[in-house]
Structure formats: C-alpha cells, structure tokens
Design brief:
111 residues, alpha+beta, two-stranded antiparallel ribbon, two-stranded antiparallel sheet, 22% helix, binds zinc ion
C-alpha cells in the first residue's frame, strides 16, 4: 500500500477502466464536453470544479458527475497495487476513512 500527498488537487482516473461520464443533473452523455471542462478547471489548479453542463444548462461539479467507473478529485491517495482481494467491504472502507479522518472514494484503476 502506498500513500501519496499532492500539493495540488489532481484527478484520479481509473486508467483503462475508464467507461465514460454522464451529466449528474440530466444523465446525458457528458464525454463530449467533459474534456474541455477538465482543461478549463485544470488551468486553475482544479480550484473551481463547477461548470455549466451544455446538455441541460445546470451547474454541476466535475467531482459529482456520474463517472461510469468511479473517479475523483483529491490531494491524497492510498494505492494498493494488485491487492489480491476481491474487494474491500463497506466496513473496511468506513474504517479507513475513519482512520484518515477524511471521506474516501474507492477507485479501481488499471494501469
Ligand atoms: Zn445535463
């Protein structure tokens, strides 16, 4: 297990498991505009993750879009490579978050 702190917020994507992204407000496919919204947000160090979804005009957070395969923004990561377990249980996830004192989002990546 490896943990890493970043100076700046970065986007943790699931690598080859990437399966697309949908608008959190209306459910439309967001992949077309997502890349550009990411670039805009990235230019500002991901300080402002809110963007106006062109599909429905709603203000949505890039962090809350419906990533088909989980992805997240953050400055801290715990990484386990080939953990050799099927999955962590909700109990284990909760304990890890409790120990760290911060909410965690689990992302299964493939590199
Ligand atoms: Zn929408």
């Amino acid at each position: 297990m490896k943990s890493s702190f970043e100076d700046e917020v970065r986007f943790y994507d699931p690598g080859e498991n990437w399966s697309g992204v949908k608008c959190s407000a209306c459910g439309a496919d967001a992949e077309e505009w997502w890349g550009e919204a990411m670039e805009t947000a990235s230019a500002d160090g991901f300080k402002d993750l809110n963007t106006v979804a062109p599909c429905c005009g709603a203000t949505v957070s890039l962090n809350d879009l419906r990533y088909i395969w989980p992805a997240a923004f953050g400055r801290f990561a715990l990484e386990a490579h080939n953990p050799g377990i099927g999955d962590t249980t909700e109990e284990q996830d909760r304990k890890m978050a409790e120990c760290l004192g911060t909410p965690l989002r689990k992302i299964w990546g493939q590199v």
